[in-house]
Amino acid sequence: xxxxxxxxxxxxxxxxxxxxxxxxxxxxxxxxxxxxxxxxxxxxxxxxxxxxxxxxxxxxxxxxxxxxxxxxxxxxxxxxxxxxxxxxxxxxxxxxxxxxxxxxxxxxxxxxxxxxxxxxxxxxxxxxxxxxxxxxxxxxxxxxxxxxxxxxxxxxxxxxxxxxxxxxxxxxxxxxxxxxxxxxxxxxxxxxxxxxxxxxxxxxxxxxxxxxxxxxxxxxxxxxxxxxxxxxxxxxxxxxxxxxxxxxxxxxxxxxxxxxxxxxxxxxxxxxxxxxxxxxxxxxxxxxxxxxxxxxxxxxxxxxxxxxxxxxxxxxxxxxxxxxxxxxxxxxxxxxxxxxxxxxxxxxxxxxxxxxxxxxxxxxxxxxxxxxxxxxxxxxxxxxxxxxxx
Length: 390
Fold this sequence. Notes:
By secondary structure, the protein is mostly helical. It has one domain (4-389). Helix content is 78%, strand content 0%. The chain has twelve helices and no strands. The longest helix has 56 residues, at 236-291. The radius of gyration is 25 Å and the shape is elongated.
């Protein structure tokens, strides 16, 4: 069985591989432009430019124009995520470095905290398999669609409706040039989604690990406070253990607050881009499904829903862990502490009552309530678009 540090390294290696494949260079030594980054930026510009050109070409036909824009919102969101990650390279490196040093390296197999660390290392590893399989699964479904149409209807079609200027995809050579470029777009985009979304899950799961470690230490401190030797102040050894454990709890709580604040700042604009682009992308593909028989729109719609929902599920997990920490602090036997530490406890409890977690550009938290409101807004936008087309 793999140890916690081995599972962590396996999960972290996936992030580093995705970063290298799209040239983000989040954990590389080189700064500035590299060949991988130039290639990714070129693909982003080409992806958006070709979609705009195709939409302009078929501007006279509303349905074909809709099909040509089925993925433009996804590409726009990926562009914003990509530039946000590059701009915040140093904070990402700092957070990931602190996680390994303060948890997986600090708590080895012989420590009492190791079962907690082992649990979250497995969750992190399994989550990576699920997210990678899900994103590449949608890519496989989109690839199957042209084959299905070819064998059932005898006609060729592209992976998605995006043409290259002066390249006729209806002939054999032009078709394979267009499809090859589209496959490159898909693979690069999927790696970008894995990097950003799995990195978000990476920070969320390890943030939950920080919270459960603090709760574990609070339980240990509660047992020490209940010792007769501490209550009668007759055991200097237990008193010293209480002092040490209390200092650990204070430091860990401060670290959790700073961790979630940095994480929220990193993902603030990413969440805004994700929500805005996903809402319009979902609406476009719902219209395509309702008005045409283009089966690839189902796979794109499914991927957009999953990509949007993942962020809100992770935000809800953070909100729940923060609430669990507050409950643990409320139930903590603070009355057994001395007067000075009771004052420190009040400050600790006051800070724990202030919300921490992801937000959408600081406007609203990322949780299930916001998700419900966005789904209502999406329905209204879809109904408005349908009335306009009718």
